[in-house]
């Protein structure tokens, strides 16, 4: 009888659910709007700079028109140079020429000073010739310079994204590697992923047994251990990193201790080294790996393990076939969380890592703060974000992990 | 494996037994139709020749200064359905866990089939166990759950599937084999747990309040099913419960636990009709309790004085002396409303306090002159207005007098928190 009653009840419930589903959305609306304006919009705006770059196009309106008339490739004729001179003169007057010169310099190393010199000449002499301009700026007589300018007049560019992968346009339709001395980003990405992997594995090695211990402790003891793990979690990451610099120094506590214990015979360099960086990052990331694992482990009924044993499962079999599959979602969630957070580490590599331990975030920060090359920063950020999302989607899709289900 | 061993113990004497047991459990691969009945084995009555299949000898379990189990001596016969019954904290679950191997006795020895299991880990004891919360593996299908004990024993794949099918058939869940446990109802989950505990043919199955999480109707249905399976397989079952009606329904024998020791062990009717202590009398079934003082003792009987000059004749249980405080028990269904010429050992005047309708019977609350209130079971038709004067009577043989107070092993206490 209940089987007859069920479908009607169900449809009724789902119909009611549907009309109610907008109400919770309305409750969340303020948060969603805040996220959209303070988070979504700025990210889109910044990332769009990786592909939208109008500086050169804005600086050279007449040159663009002249180049359109000039069909041939290579160094253009007198008319284009004249238009270029007028554009530079206007830019000099408007003060935008510096930005243009800097921008061109990223595509054409050494172009900045030469362009500024030509701009000054053009401002003094209305009728400057092509020859005079090439004399002042030898780069303008070269084919690659004009192909760089032609590419730059396009407001949409793939230059920065390609650069993020150490690639560039080598011809009209061909892409090739940048010269070895300019190739940095692949190595930095590789290093970032390597360190994130090592830290993730280290936290897992620490967190798994600890979480297991905590689930088997009396509740009061488990709470104490949990607080001990969480205490550093509640302090600022800067403070924690600073604490590690005290510990890891050559004449710091750890070296003192290891010498005293006779583990090492000499003081080892932990500061400004990869080992030190991984130690500090592991400590900072431990709670992120631990908590999802702990929450999942707590949900496994002890009676299941007893049942498995009474049914003939030896301890290792019980662990492998009953326990591990059930705690795996927590392990994956914890590892994914730590891995993703490690990809974006900034302050710890700056303070503890050496020159060769700087991660991709440090490069992004450098482009934003020091070099003012927001386009490159945006391109690197885009690659970082895309790889993070890709990782997350892979985990959720193919490993059935649901981060939102984790307690 | 163990069943094969057991079968060698039982001689192939009766042709009926040989017929009942096509022996397919030990002949792997033969998936015939009669395989369905292959679970049938010697009925319990035949198998009980081995009176000490499981033997507890002076077993004790202490947690610090707390004695969860004290000096336990107990034998379980092969094929027997024995129930541990007692309030929570009485040590019954601790005893079961020691047998399963999850706890080690602080003192004493447990033997299984004549061999000490002291150093045997749970996974080597070959004991099936069913838990109150089912303890199914949520990440495995029903079929995989049932196959688990076989696969850890490295049975060939071709043999596992038919065995799983047969075990699931037995609990009528064959068509659910691809579901996950969470997609089943509580009763179905418990049946899966049962199939899983039986599929590897253990000689002994332990059940720790397996029906405790089910509602009343389902519980009663499962009790019958469990009993049928027990009779069909002839497997030895040790069952733990705090539900006395469950214990009475299913068991061959019941061991009553209180405060870490067995107070009484016997068949359900012996426990019901001849409780050895006041605790058992109060714990098993419903009982009226009257406190009084012994007036005279003799010939296994005694006369007890109740307040207000009432006198009751009763069976004297234990050491009773005149003047000693005494605890009388008499079952509601043994008290009759006497007619005029009724002859009885005890005839007491009472007034009706109230009457509770139960469908098939009524419960009459009758107040004696002593002020004590007795419950009496009467037929559903009688009308009893409050205040009506009645006469109650019952034979002395249905009324038991226990020493009150200084009873070492029978005090109806509910202390401790082990189990």
Describe the structure.
The complex is a heterodimer of chains A (407) and B (419). Chain A has helices at residues 2-20, 22-48, 55-59, 61-69, 78-94, 97-107, 111-124, 130-136, 143-152, 159-164, 185-216, 219-234, 237-248, 253-261, 274-299, 302-310, 315-343, 347-351, 360-369, 374-398, and strands at 167-169, 175-177. Chain A has 407 residues and is an all-alpha fold. In chain A, helix 16 (302-310) packs antiparallel against helix 17 and helix 17 runs antiparallel to helix 20 (374-398). Chain B has 419 residues and is an alpha+beta fold. Chain B folds into two domains: 47-273, 3-Layer(aba) Sandwich (Rossmann fold), CATH 3.40.50.300; 286-403, Beta Barrel (OB fold (Dihydrolipoamide Acetyltransferase, E2P)), CATH 2.40.50. Chain B is built from eleven helices and 20 strands. Chain B has helices at 2-9, 15-20, 44-47, 92-100, 142-152, 157-170, 186-198, 216-233, 244-250, 268-273, 278-283; strands spanning 54-63, 66-76, 81-85, 107-112, 115-116, 127-130, 204-208, 236-241, 253-258, 261-266, 288-298, 301-305, 311-316, 325-330, 336-337, 346-357, 362-368, 373-378, 389-394, 399-403. The longest helix of chain B has 18 residues, at 216-233. Mean pLDDT of chain B is 82; it is low at 1-49 and 406-419. Chain B: Keywords: ATP-binding, Cell membrane, Membrane, Nucleotide-binding, Translocase, Transport. Chain B: Involved in beta-(1-->2)glucan export. Transmembrane domains (TMD) form a pore in the inner membrane and the ATP-binding domain (NBD) is responsible for energy generation.
